[in-house]
Design brief:
By secondary structure, the protein is an alpha+beta fold. Helix content is 40%, strand content 22%. Helix 3 runs antiparallel to helix 4. The protein starts with a helix and ends with a strand.
């Protein structure tokens, strides 16, 4: 959400910056609403002044013993008109906030201009793809052959875009969750949170999923409960309508949750395998920071996510998203993309974003230092998407005989060194 006063004062500049991310701001509609609101407030203020003047005159006439019934009727009429104008101003304000609720965040000045993912900037590459003297298989073939992944039974149980993990496949998923949580809590300074997986509409509004992305959510019939699309939502809303101590920021939290998405906007991308599922697991990193420290914290959060990939020995790259490829609420985003030999391409495995005050304004999350109170900045990123990490391990550590070597960092959690057919 944007600050209405700042938005009004800098309308043309904001419209130009939003245009760089492919969003056409309806400036005429905004100005029309603004004029309607200002006209109502101006008339209301003038009428209040007139009412005060008439009331003073009535007092004088009463003191002189004169009949003031006609003047009192006029004052009542003025009061009714003022109430009507104030109602109009409130209705216009509601329209303003409905308007602003669908306007994306303004990109940070360091975000490169661009129209699509083709204009993103690769910041660095870590590691190298594994050398293989055989044709690598994709996980959707390798998993079933190993007996650790079953799509057919998942489709029978539920439908398309679901999977059943079996045996060491299920244990590998659990091992990854525990490994990620252990590294982030024991070494990176995050506090673990286990939030509800059902969330209400106010929480989804606070982080920006509602009202714009309702079609991508799963809602429980006849309730105000939704399945969490990401732990970002419940964890960020922990401090909704609260004021944090600025001297104790940043607050760093991490959470494992299953995530549920309809993938309404996927348009048929990644339909094979478990890259894009309706249900998947994720370890999320969330930070609350002072405005002057949030971009430094974005670098730290992204590095924390990268550390998981490094310890797993996976080749990946950090990509700075351009204006045209950013998420709705983000001011700046880095994507981490892992190499998948079975697909001969890099795939996103984490998206790390600074939302600045965009979410905090919607969720009313503030911080106070002395007498100064201001909106906090919120950040989050996957640390990591568990299913995609599972895919990366299976594809990168596959052997010619169809087995998969377990990365050393996971062996204490998994209890085996090799996953065999």
């Amino acid at each position: 959400m944007h600050d209405l006063s700042y938005f009004r004062t800098n309308l043309d500049a904001i419209a130009a910056r939003l245009g760089e991310r492919g969003y056409q701001l309806d400036v005429d509609s905004f100005r029309s609403l603004d004029q309607e609101r200002r006209a109502a407030l101006t008339e209301s203020e003038n009428l209040k002044a007139q009412r005060n003047s008439e009331s003073a005159e009535i007092a004088k006439l009463k003191k002189a013993g004169m009949d003031t019934s006609s003047q009192q009727a006029m004052v009542r009429a003025i009061g009714d008109r003022i109430s009507s104008l104030e109602d109009t101003a409130k209705q216009v304000d509601a329209k303003f906030y409905d308007f602003l609720a669908t306007v994306p965040n303004v990109p940070h000045e360091s975000v490169p201009k661009g129209a699509s993912a083709d204009d993103n900037q690769v910041m660095h590459v870590s590691g190298a793809p594994p050398a293989m003297d055989f044709e690598p298989k994709a996980h959707w073939d390798l998993g079933p052959e190993l007996g650790i992944l079953d799509f057919e039974r998942a489709a029978k149980i539920t439908g398309a875009r679901f999977a059943v993990y079996m045996g060491l496949g299920a244990k590998l998923e659990r091992a990854l969750i525990n490994f990620m949580l252990d590294v982030h809590t024991k070494e990176h300074g995050y506090t673990e949170v286990l939030p509800p997986f059902l969330i209400n509409s106010t929480s989804l509004y606070g982080t920006g999923q509602l009202p714009k992305f309702a079609e991508d959510l799963f809602k429980l019939e006849n309730t105000d409960y939704y399945l969490a699309p990401t732990a970002e939502v419940p964890v960020t809303n922990l401090y909704r309508d609260e004021t944090l101590d600025a001297d104790k920021l940043p607050v760093s939290l991490c959470a494992y949750t299953p995530c549920f998405r309809s993938e309404a906007g996927s348009h048929g991308r990644d339909v094979r395998g478990i890259i894009r599922q309706h249900q998947f697991q994720k370890v999320e990193l969330v930070k609350f920071a002072r405005p002057d420290q949030s971009h430094e914290q974005l670098e730290r959060l992204t590095s924390d996510a990268e550390e998981i990939l490094k310890r797993l020995g996976l080749c990946f790259r950090r990509v700075l998203l351009c204006t045209g490829d950013m998420g709705f609420a983000s001011a700046k985003t880095y994507d981490l993309e892992v190499w998948l030999p079975g697909q001969n391409s890099f795939k996103e495995i984490s998206s790390c974003s600074n939302f600045e005050s965009f979410q905090a304004r919607r969720a009313s999350i503030r911080c106070r230092s002395g007498k100064k109170t201001e909106l906090a900045h919120t950040l989050n990123g996957s640390g990591l998407a568990v299913g995609r990490t599972w895919v990366a391990i299976v594809e990168n550590y596959q052997q010619k005989d169809g087995s998969v070597v377990v990365p050393e960092a996971l062996r204490p959690y998994l209890g085996v060194e090799v996953i065999r057919p």
